[in-house]
């Protein structure tokens, strides 16, 4: 059967599933569906090792999903670095935000609670950071070696539609300079942030308020090794995390039309030298300055795109093509791997014996849309809300930013909850709302009490504005998750 299917894929370009893109999501989905006995064709524009500044820190929730997919060993032999949590540096003072012990997500609730009752301490979850390209190549090795998957190096150029039903039947592509076509009962589009196909199926487009500019620092002594670093101050957030034995990624958020990055002020280089360098921990500065002179400055838009339900017969869009959030919290790959797990569950051959049954597949897509909320809406909302606070550009947001940092300093559940959400371990949106509004109330309290006694009545009145701002920050993202 495998042999016959392989021949069908190679000679007739036919399979159960055609996947566009062998990036994070495409590889995971191809392996997951291939493992279930589906015949899969993957079309990838370039099989060379990607050289990108994205997808370099995988949260513990992503590591768990990778394990479920049987792909955890892709984190080996790529010089990956263990990540135990974050070091948040706010105007020079630090707080360690370790991934929490004994925190359990919805799905493993029963086991986790039993462990706690027995007083058993479970292993602290770990993330991994690495060179994106090396990790993608490991994922691709798995796809290339899979007996049920055929990989074709070529660029998808269009979708093949049925003339009668408008159902998607596959993709047109350019392979080795020649036009070609590949057919599947199901076409999964996973062509990333600049998806060529997205606009055919939805009227909204990604919105980007800022870009991340990336530099690679060499042999830099970080204040807290094995932790991601978030640097906050009178500037948008700066991230630092080690991606190899000798290399550390610096990502500098630069909002649109920032005066300190204008041509007059020396452009991006000027901003890096004049604003970012002085904000960095002292031991990081020489290496950062060297990278400014040495590196080709590269940037990526930090996009927001709320999720939608797949409604087109024969087509599924996933990954960045369907849903994006600010990369501040490093959640994109965790969402993608979790989606691959969920997709393989809802399309399991015991539920959907034939992918030609498009009605049943679409029903299962509705189910996927809601099932993924536990993890993806938490990560989406948290990333967007936290970005607003961390890039604070007015007095109320600044008060919320300070409140957030002081909240972390309280320790205990004030750290475990938020970082458990960020890590993709706690998958309950309610926990996110609880901590967000706890931060808002704490920020109001600090705002009222930090000024002298005489100012307390005035501050008490103005603090309502802080709470209002918190609502303005979070509610649009909550609503964006509620749409069907
Ligand atoms: C600056 C930045 C930093 C980030 N950092 C992190 C992080 O630390 N941790 C994290 O979890 N997430 C991070 N993300 C998000 C993460 O990179 C994405 O969520 C993830 O890569 C999405 O996977 P994907 O498979 O949808 O897309 P991609 O990984 O981009 O894969 C898309 C694939 O499709 C291929 N392709 C595109 N068009 C075609 C075509 N027409 N035909 C054939 N193939 C095609 C591409 O070559 C590519 O291989 C970051 C994002 C940004 C912008």
From TrEMBL:
Membrane-related topology note? Multi-pass membrane protein
Q: What EC number(s) would the UniProt record show?
A: 1.14.14.17
* Pfam families assigned: SE
Show the catalytic activity. squalene + reduced [NADPH--hemoprotein reductase] + O2 = (S)-2,3-epoxysqualene + oxidized [NADPH--hemoprotein reductase] + H2O + H(+)
Residue ranges crossing the lipid bilayer per the database entry: 374-392, 430-448, 460-479
Q: In which domain of life is the source organism classified? A: Eukaryota
Query: Which UniProt keywords are present, listed alphabetically?
Result: Endoplasmic reticulum, FAD, Flavoprotein, Lipid biosynthesis, Lipid metabolism, Membrane, Microsome, Oxidoreductase, Steroid biosynthesis, Steroid metabolism, Transmembrane, Transmembrane helix
Q: Which GO terms describe its molecular function?
A: flavin adenine dinucleotide binding; squalene monooxygenase activity
Please state every residue range assigned to the domain named Squalene epoxidase. 185-459
Q: What class of enzyme is it?
A: oxidoreductase
Q: What is this protein called?
A: Squalene monooxygenase
Organism ancestry: Eukaryota, Fungi, Dikarya, Ascomycota, Pezizomycotina
């Amino acid at each position: 059967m495998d042999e016959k299917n392989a021949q069908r894929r190679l000679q007739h370009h036919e399979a159960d599933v055609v996947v566009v893109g062998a990036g994070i999501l495409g590889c995971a989905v191809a392996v997951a569906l291939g493992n279930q006995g589906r015949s899969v064709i993957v079309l990838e524009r370039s099989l060379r090792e990607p050289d990108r500044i994205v997808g370099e820190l995988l949260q513990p929730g992503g590591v768990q999903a990778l394990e479920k997919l049987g792909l955890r060993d892709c984190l080996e032999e790529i010089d990956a670095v263990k990540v135990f949590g974050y070091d948040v540096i706010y105007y020079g003072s630090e707080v360690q935000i370790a991934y929490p012990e004994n925190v359990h997500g919805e799905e493993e609730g029963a086991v986790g609670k039993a462990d706690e009752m027995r007083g058993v301490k479970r292993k602290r979850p770990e993330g991994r950071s690495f060179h994106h390209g090396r990790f993608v190549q490991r994922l691709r090795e798995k796809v290339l070696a899979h007996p049920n998957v055929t990989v074709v190096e070529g660029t998808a150029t269009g979708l093949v539609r049925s003339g009668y039903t408008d159902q998607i039947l596959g993709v047109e592509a350019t392979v080795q300079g020649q036009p070609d076509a590949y057919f599947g009962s199901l076409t999964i589009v996973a062509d990333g942030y600049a998806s060529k196909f997205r606009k055919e199926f939805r009227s909204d487009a990604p919105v980007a308020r800022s870009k991340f500019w990336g530099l690679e620092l060499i042999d830099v002594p970080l204040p807290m090794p094995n932790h991601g670093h978030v640097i906050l101050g009178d500037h948008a957030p700066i991230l630092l995390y080690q991606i190899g034995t000798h290399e550390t990624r610096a990502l500098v958020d630069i909002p649109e039309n920032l005066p300190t990055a204008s041509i007059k002020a020396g452009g991006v280089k000027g901003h890096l030298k004049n604003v970012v360098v002085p904000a960095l921990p002292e031991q990081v500065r020489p290496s950062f300055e060297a990278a400014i002179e040495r590196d080709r400055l590269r940037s990526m838009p930090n996009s927001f795109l709320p999720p939608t339900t797949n409604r087109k017969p024969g087509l599924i869009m996933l990954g960045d093509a369907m849903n994006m959030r600010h990369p501040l919290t490093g959640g994109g790959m965790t969402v993608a791997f979790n989606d691959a797990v969920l997709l393989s569950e809802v399309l399991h051959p015991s539920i959907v014996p034939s992918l030609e049954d498009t009605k049943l597949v679409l029903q299962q897509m509705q189910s996927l849309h809601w099932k993924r909320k536990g993890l993806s809406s938490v990560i989406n909302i948290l990333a967007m809300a936290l970005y607003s606070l961390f890039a604070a550009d007015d007095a109320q947001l600044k008060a919320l930013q300070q409140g957030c940092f002081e909240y972390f300093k309280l320790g205990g559940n004030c750290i475990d909850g938020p970082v458990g959400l960020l890590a993709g371990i706690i998958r309950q949106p309610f926990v996110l709302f609880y901590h967000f509004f706890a931060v808002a109330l704490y920020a109001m309290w600090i705002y009222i009490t930090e000024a002298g006694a005489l100012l307390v009545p005035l501050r008490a009145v103005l603090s309502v504005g802080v709470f209002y701002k918190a609502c303005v920050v979070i509610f649009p993202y909550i609503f964006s998750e509620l749409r069907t």
